[in-house]
Amino acid sequence: MRLNHLFLLVVLALPIASLTAQAADKKAVPAGVEPLPEALPPPGVVEANPADEPEITIVKKGETTVEEYRVHGELYMQKITPSTGKPYYLMKQDQEGGWSRFDGPAAPLVIPKWVIFRF
Predict the structure, then answer these.
(1) Which tens digits make up the pLDDT trace of 17-47?
(2) Using CA atoms, how far apart are residues 44 and 78, in angstroms rounded to an integer?
(3) What's residue 51's pLDDT?
(4) 19 within domain boundaries
(5) What range does the domain containing 81 cover?
(6) What is the mean pLDDT of each run of 10 residues along the chain (119 residues)?
(7) The pTM is what?
(8) In angstroms, rounded to a whole number, what is the distance separating the alpha carbons of residues 25 and 9?
C-alpha cells in the first residue's frame, strides 16, 4: 500500500517538474541589460618577513621557566612558568621599562604608544 502511494506521488510530480523547467527556459532577458564584468582575481599573497617574527628565548631559573619574546632585538613580553601555580605574562608598557602583569582572561589596560620612526 505504501509503495503504491509513493509511485502515485512520483507520477504526479513529474509533469509539474517539467512545466517549471519549461517556464524557466521561456524567461526572456529584458532589453538593455548587460552582463556583469568578470570578477577581479584575488590579491597576491604577501610574503612574511622573517625579521618581523618574534624570537623566543627559554631560560630556566631554578624551578621557574622564563620565555622571553623579542622583536628586532627588543624584549617586549615574558612568560613566567613557576614550578607551582599558574603561568603568567609580563608585558612591556613603555620604553622606560614599565612592565605589567597579565594572568587572567581580561587584557591589561594598555595606553597606545605607537612608534612613528625607528632610527
Answers:
(1) 555 655 555 566 777 888 888 988 888 877 7
(2) 35
(3) 72
(4) no
(5) 54-102
(6) 70 62 61 85 78 88 92 89 90 77 70 78
(7) 0.49
(8) 25
Amino acid present at 76: Y
Cell of 102: 597579565
- Neighbour-count burial for 90-105, b at 16+ CB within 10 Å, e otherwise: bbbbeeeeeeeebeee
Question: How many domains in the chain?
Answer: 1
Q: Cα-Cα-Cα-Cα dihedral of 68, 69, 70, 75, to 10°?
A: -60
Looking up cell 527556459 gives: 25
18 assigned to some structural domain: no
Cell numbers 594572568 correspond to 103
CATH classification of the domain holding 65: 2.20.130.30
Residue with cell 597579565: 102
